[in-house]
Amino acid sequence: MKSLSQYLRQPHPEACSCSVCWSRRELANSVPSPSTVCPHCLPAEVLQVDGRWVCRPVSRCAKHTPPRRPPKYWHVVYDSGKPTPYVPIYEPFELE
Predict the structure, then answer these.
(1) Which of 39, 42, 63, 84 fits a disulfide with 59 by CB distance 3.0 to 4.6 angstroms?
(2) Is beta strand 45-49 parallel, antiparallel or unpaired with respect to 52-56?
(3) Which residues of the chain have pLDDT under 50?
(4) 15-34: per-residue pLDDT in tens?
């Protein structure tokens, strides 16, 4: 009987169809994301300055700055009319 250590870290064959090899091939063929930021935008950074950690927030250009409010349609909720009050029935009944 073979031990588990003999199977770990074994190289994959050339035409391997496992999910790991498939993911590697797809990532190698993929194009950069269209949502990558422009050169004027700066990502957030965490730096160590004089032994203290300093966080620099995201800096976005005017084109990529999100609006302060969501789009107008988000405040609209389906209005089904007046609410129907809940009236509990304490006595069992039978349909006739």
Answers:
(1) 42
(2) antiparallel
(3) none
(4) 888 888 888 888 777 666 65
